Each structure stands twice: as structure tokens, then as C-alpha cells.
UniProtKB/TrEMBL annotation:
Leader peptide range in chain numbering: 1-21
Identification of the protein by name: 2-polyprenyl-6-methoxyphenol hydroxylase-like FAD-dependent oxidoreductase
Native source species: Nonomuraea rubra
Gene3D superfamilies xrefs: 3.30.9.30, FAD/NAD(P)-binding domain (3.50.50.60)
Source lineage: Bacteria, Bacillati, Actinomycetota, Actinomycetes, Streptosporangiales
Pfam families cross-referenced by the UniProt entry: FAD_binding_3
Amino acid sequence: MRIVIAGAGIGGLTAALSLHAAGFTDVTVHEAARELKPLGVGINLLPHAVRELTELGLADRLAGIGVATAELAYFNRYGTPIWSEPRGLGAGYAWPQYSVHRGRLQLLLLEAVIERLGPGSVRTGSRITGPGGEDLLIGADGINSAVRAHLYPGEGPPPWNGLVLWRGTTYGEPFLTGRSMIMAGDGTQKFVAYPIETGERTLINWIAERPLDGEPPERGNWNRPCDLAEVGRHFAGWRFDWLDVPGIIAGAETAYEYPMVDRDPLPRWTIGKVTLLGDAAHAMYPIGSNGASQAIIDARVLAYALATGDLDAYERLRRPATTALQLSNREMGPEVVMKLAHERAPGGFDDVEQVIPLAERAEIAASYKRTAGFDPASLSERPSWSVTRSTA
């Protein structure tokens, strides 16, 4: 079976590794860029994605480039705690959660693909726009997927919700546990920070978010530089006892602007000998740290479905799950606690229990884990997606 993958991002490269592990030998990844560079900033890999990379034999390499997240904590815009929870091994998972530079993860996966599938398995400067002579074309070419446009030519650009993200990295002092991921905001304006390197110096990945007046300049481009002074102006008063937000913004060498866009859920991913994966299939708002993780899971389930001779199982298992997640992210997912806290106590509060009771906060967090597929008990009990293709 000849398989072509369009896109050498995290999803496409994981698909190549998963298909190879499942016994498929004729797999080629085509990447439109002429050179793969470690672009981007930080992302999070949740335990369900780390499980899949571990089963692909990449646990040690992943541990070498990532920071094991210890805690996720939400605060209002004044830096007052709303909710916090342990993450990864500390939360009872069998697998850690990692904060990692997206480009370093991509190069790690690329290196593994070349080692296992051979140097000719990844072809750069090769843009795939539709099916050719292969038995299966996998569109893993991102939010502006040419393969998706082939299947749905009238769809148009991804819809924008009026918010803009500014993303950067800054060397700074450790905060809270030293491996905490924090989100502070009011449901409209938000600041996120977490370390992606620790040691002699801490490299802090940060995201600042707020409404943007007018039309966004370029949808789906993560690499458009922005004006740090302009970003800092919107967060000038956000100095907490434990984090200096304007100082972190000002300390970045550069930052990037990205309009908050996603894609509407599709009625089908697989048409004929073409299927979609990752952002090409279900681009979602960067809420709950799920984009890369869901692409990794797509790749593993697709390989499992093909190896067991039931391609339709891929879409049956993944499309309803990711559709629910896309819609949940449009409603702010677990980050809705910041919105609720602001609506109920816009001037701040002394006792969060009087604003959002513990049971409500806990259920918001637990519900999102169930929707996204990383409820601890369910994840541990779920059978592996590892499989060897039957040649009988």
C-alpha cells in the first residue's frame, strides 16, 4: 500500500512513524517548505499524547527536550487564584505532561522518521494539493490545508472570532512551582505563561490575548512578528506578587501575532482515497492545550484503522470526539472559570468559594478532560493503539 502524507508537521510526522510501526513500508511525507526549521514557540503535550509518543519509543527523547508540567493554575486579572490542579504524574497519570518548544518537537519527530523510514521518506519543497497515484493521501497540511481545499473547494478562509494572540519567549525567573502553567484573565483578556526550558536559566513561553480592532492581517500564519511595546501597553497593570507580566513581555527578543481562528467541523474527513488529520481536519482554538496532542492521537488511530483493515474506524472514533472538542473550545473549555469569576466578581474577590464553589470548578475541569480524552482513569484503561499490520 502506497501512502503519501501532505505536511511534515507534528501530525504528519507522527503519522509516518505510526504507519511504519504498524508495518506499512511505502510511506512518504511531502512538505511544501524547502527547509524544516525549528519555528514557533511553546506548546503543551497532554498525557494522552505523551502515551502515544511513548509507545512509539520516543519517551527518553521527549523527556530530553521538554519540561514536565507540575501544575495548571487559573487566576483572575488581579492575580488572585481561582483554580489549580496537579498535572502529569502528579495528577495520577501513568504518563507526564510536557511543555516543549514546537520546533524542537518537530525536529525530534523528523529525526526519528529519517532514522526509521530512511532519508528519502521526507521530501521538502514538495507541495501536495490533491490525490495522485498513491493508494491513500493523508492531508496533514495545517489550518490552510490544500488537501482539505481539494475536498471542500468552497469553504474559504478560517473564521476569526475577533481576538488576537501574541506569542513569545522570555528568559526570566521561575514562578510558583518552577514548572507551573498559569492562565490569568477575565474571559476577554488573558495571559498564559509556562517554562519550556529550566536549569541555569528559565525560558518562559507566554501568550497574551485580547480583542483586536479591525480585520486580522493574516489568518493561519503563526510567524508574523508584532510590536512588543504595543502588546505590553495592554497588560501594563498586570503585575502580580509572583509574576511581572509586562516585564516578561518586554523581555522577549521577538513575539508573533496570530488571529484567533479555527475551522468549522466537517461532515466527513475521508472521501475516496483521501483523508485528513490534525489541523487540516479539525483546527481548533488554542484552548486547553490540545491542538498538537489531538493531531498525535489522530495519527495513531489512523495507523491502527489501516492496519486492521477498517479505514472507516478512524473517522468513527476521531471525528465526533474532535468535533465536540472544537465546539467546547469555542465556549472557552476549562478557561471559562476566568470568565465566570469576572462576571460574578468584576472587582476581584477574597474568597473564591463564594464566587465559584469548589464543586463547580472541579466539574468544569473534569468535564473538559472527558471531552478531550485525557480523563486519568479512562486513559489508563483504554487499550493501546499499537498494532502490527496483518499480511495474511
